[in-house]
Design goal:
heterodimer; A: mainly alpha; two-stranded antiparallel sheet; two-stranded antiparallel ribbon; 4 strands; about 60% helix; B: Beta-Lactamase; 3 helices; Sedlin (chain B)
């Protein structure tokens, strides 16, 4: 700018002012917020201030450099002395009194407000928010830091509250209040004790990119923020400013929903302005408030608010129906006509934002996306009545899926119980992407009871998914279920819930893959490496082999943990959670031979028995049971581990020769299954005992192999479903993402 | 495309390229007659979700009109240029299905009174995207 000659006094004064404004100690740039404050304190009309800023070049540069600042100060002096603002006057006017700035404790407030306003201005849509916050801000500040500020703020509050008998007046009072303060002739110059608000302000000053000039006019224009009024009237309670002051206390005291809401809004606004980059983030206070409100309508935090109740509630906010409708569309993520806690908070947040002047977004902001897991779980449970009572624990979810399993139906309930036992902690971290949830929802709705949710997690384990279990449950499998190798589809259910923590029902329809992908790391320790299915528990421990019909290609039964007692082989189909590796290992050790073992019926009976027995057993129990079962069957004494393909129909005769081969393997298996009680015994005994144990082991192997094959079949089914779901997802994607 | 509720007043009309709104209005209304005819003809409480029909193929105008009726007697009518030969039956069906789904979503909104004009932005977006795909 033009050269500026300053007298000594001016020089000193300006320097002081500059350092005052130089909050960041850059020695080069005066923070815009402070500068604005300063200008306001100069008690100049807004347009004059704007003019000054233009003249000094700050608007051009976007910041106040030292020279700009000095020029501005000089212009302020010029303006204050009533001279027209001209660049020439900078140097021509001599004997210019130093610019006067109202420096009082109130300045702090006004400063803050200025900052707020300027910050708030930055986002154009936030402008409406500015007026209220200032009042609030003052209040808030008081609570935050200075005592002086506090006193002032309380004074402000009182001032604002007293005149505000009706809610509508409260907003206007805020700005008036601070203006009043501003006019207090304090005289001093910069020595403002910035103190407290310092850090608080920092974000503000940073947030405003030199649009401070604009904030001024906007600020004044917004003196009576209509939104605020609406907001306040919504609550029909004492002025919000008062509320703000006591923020937490008032929240409790206020009976009306909106009162609290307004306070929350204020905080929200404040925070929003301070964190401009994420205006939609819900602060903790707000969230708490929303939760409280939710409770008033629906005491169960995991439950829903039905549409009609929500409608009444939000209609109280006096927003136009069209906007409420849009808010609903945004926040009812699963499109079920009811609001879960997260959805409700999102909706409330949007209402609050709207009332404060923010425009509604076209799509739900990220931070408002409902967290699916927990809510979904409850949602899912609610939705899927058929699903066995899934409790919050995801583990149980899978069992509920069992109903879909034809032959396993009976076992399912048992499994459920077992899964309950496992008490898989509802994985909070599991987070399904909204789209996923939505997809799931849609899937659920649209695909009906089609449990074709392939579960990606299933892929993790190569267990034989029992056909019955199909996918749906498996959908939720995630890598987290490492243990559940042999998760049959049923397992997948369990794992799904665990992972996604929800929607048991969803499991079915979800393409497990997508959710799983987004889901956070697998839920905390799957309570049981044992599957929810009792049998699976068993299996996991003892077998790791997946008995049962092994699908073709016995897939490399991963040399499962042999220690698994063979009995768990059959492991009820659903129970197949066999640790694949384990089961497979055992099987492989026995070499995947054709092991029709027993006729189909036998298999089923085995499985059923297994399932029944397996229900809530720990490994040993199950193992023992299985062994009993196995031995009871005795049909396939030395059946080699079941081949991948179910060969139930194979006669036992066939088995025998295989059995012989198997015996060799059995020996291996025996070694593997050394942990089995029978083995040691047999070892220690004579040959007969050994053979008996071998027989038992083989039977176990057979069962496991069968289970494995079944699980693999289920896995395939689930995968198919997954693929189909993915295809559907793809089809829907263009529409859902638009 | 447009949709009509029971009383046959349009809840929603959207057209893409040509914006011959009026002409489409007329077309759609006339097609309603055909739709009603079909509905009554079906009788038997048939809840035929998709009645896809190729009607009103005017030689001059050369466009096709498809209809779809929901269980709640809300009719969707879609008018397409015959020059759009690529549009297969399946696509039409899927489009109707999507429309239906979106309409269901709108219904879930407690703030929406059935019978109101549809102002949902999401619905608009969906319809627009669908039409973009076709045109």
């Amino acid at each position: 700018m033009e050269g500026l000659t300053l007298s000594e006094a001016e020089q000193r004064y300006y320097c002081d002012l500059f350092s005052y404004c130089d909050t960041e100690s850059t020695k080069k740039v005066a923070s815009n917020g402070r500068v604005l404050e300063l200008f306001r304190a100069a008690q100049l009309p807004n347009d004059v201030v704007m003019q000054i800023m233009e003249l000094c070049g700050a608007t051009r540069l976007g910041y106040f450099g030292r020279s700009q600042f000095y020029i501005a100060l000089k212009l302020v002096a010029v303006a204050q002395s009533g001279l027209p603002l001209r660049v020439e006057s900078l140097n021509t006017v001599k004997d210019l009194p130093l610019p006067r700035f109202v420096m009082s404790k109130n300045e702090q407030e006004s400063r803050h407000t200025a900052l707020y306003s300027s910050d708030a201005d930055n986002p154009a849509s936030y402008s409406g928010v500015i007026p209220p916050p200032p009042g609030r801000i003052q209040v808030k500040k008081g609570s935050v830091s200075h005592d002086a500020v506090q006193q002032r703020t309380s004074a402000d509050q009182q001032e604002s509250t007293s005149p505000v008998v009706s809610p509508q007046q409260s907003p206007p009072t805020s700005p008036h209040t601070w203006r009043k303060h501003n006019r207090h002739p304090s005289g001093g110059n910069n020595e403002r004790p910035l103190a407290g608000p310092g850090p608080f302000w920092a974000p503000f000053s940073e947030a405003q990119p030199g649009s401070s000039a604009s904030s001024d006019p906007i600020w004044s224009g917004h003196s009576p923020p209509p939104h605020q009024e609406n907001w306040v009237s919504f609550a029909d309670t004492p002025p919000t400013s008062a509320l703000l002051a006591m923020h937490p206390a008032s929240v409790q005291d206020q009976t009306t929903v909106r009162t609290v809401a307004s306070a929350a809004t204020t905080n929200e606004i404040r925070r929003q302005s301070s964190s401009y980059d994420d205006p939609w983030k819900i602060t903790d206070e707000q969230r708490q408030y929303y939760v409280n409100q939710f409770k008033t309508i629906q005491p169960d935090l995991n439950g829903f608010i039905p549409g009609s109740a929500a409608k009444e509630f939000f209609t109280k906010s006096k927003l136009p129906i069209l906007e409420l409708s849009h808010i609903w569309e945004l926040s009812d993520f699963d499109k079920d006509g009811a609001l879960t806690l997260d959805e409700f908070c999102a909706a409330f947040h949007l209402v609050v934002a709207r009332k404060n002047g923010y425009d509604l977004p076209e799509k739900l902001p990220e931070s408002l996306m409902p967290k699916l897991i927990d809510l979904e779980d409850s949602t899912e449970v609610g939705e899927q009545t058929g699903e066995v009572g899934y409790s919050s624990s995801p583990a149980e979810a899978p069992p509920s899926k069992s109903p879909s399993m034809p032959s396993l139906n009976q076992t399912w309930p048992e499994l459920n119980q077992s899964s309950e036992d496992t008490a898989i902690v509802h994985p909070v971290p599991i987070r399904m992407t909204p789209s996923k949830i939505h997809m799931q929802e849609m899937e659920l709705k649209r695909t009906g009871s089609d449990h074709a949710n392939p579960t990606s997690p299933l892929l993790v384990k190569p267990p034989d998914l029992p056909e019955e279990n199909k996918m749906s449950s498996s959908v939720k499998f995630t890598s987290g279920n490492t243990v559940t190798d042999g998760y049959s589809s049923s397992d997948s259910y369990a794992s799904d819930p665990e992972q996604i923590g929800s929607t048991v029902t969803r499991q079915r329809s979800h393409s497990g893959t997508s959710p799983d992908n987004t889901a956070p790391p697998p839920p905390p320790p799957r309570p049981h490496p044992s599957h929810s299915r009792s049998s699976s528990l068993d299996m996991n421990r003892s077998f790791s082999v997946t008995p049962g019909q092994q699908q073709a290609g016995v897939v490399a039964y991963p040399p499962a943990v042999p220690p698994r007692p063979q009995p768990s082989q059959g492991a009820g189909p659903h129970v197949h959670r066999p640790v694949d590796a384990e089961g497979l290992i055992a099987h492989t050790s026995t070499s995947p031979q054709q092991i029709p073992e027993q006729p189909n019926f036998a298999d089923f009976s085995q499985f059923e028995a297994f399932a029944v027995s397996g229900v809530n057993k720990e490994e040993e129990d199950e193992i023992e049971t299985h062994s009993e079962v196995l031995q009871g069957k005795g049909t396939t004494p030395l059946a080699p581990p079941p081949k991948p393909i179910r060969r139930r129909l194979k006669s036992e005769d066939e088995l025998r020769p295989e059995a012989e081969e198997h015996t060799q393997k059995t020996g291996v298996i025996a070694a593997v299954l050394a942990s089995q009680p029978s083995i040691p015994r047999s070892v220690g005994k004579d040959k007969k005992a050994i053979q008996a144990s071998i027989r038992r082991n083989k039977e176990t192997n057979t069962v496991l192999a069968r289970l494995n094959s079944e699980l693999q079949q289920q896995l395939k089914d689930v995968l198919e479903e997954r693929i189909s779901l993915e295809v559907q997802l793809e089809q829907l994607r263009p529409f859902s993402h638009l | 495309m447009s949709k009509f509720p029971k009383m046959n007043y349009p809840l929603y009309i959207r057209s893409i390229p040509t914006e011959n709104e009026l002409k489409f209005h007329y077309t759609v209304h006339t097609s309603l007659d055909v739709v009603d005819e079909k509905i009554s003809a079906m009788g038997k409480a048939l809840v035929d979700q998709r009645e896809l029909y190729l009607g009103l193929l005017y030689p001059t105008e050369d466009y096709k009109v498809y209809g779809y009726v929901t269980n709640s007697k809300v009719k969707f009518v879609m008018v397409v240029d015959s020059s759009n030969t690529a549009l297969r039956d399946n696509e039409i069906r899927s489009m109707f299905r999507k429309l239906h789904n979106s309409y269901t979503d709108i219904m879930c909104n407690p703030f929406y009174n059935p019978g109101d004009r549809i102002n949902s932005r999401a619905f608009d977006n969906m319809v627009n995207s669908m039409m973009m795909q076709v045109c």
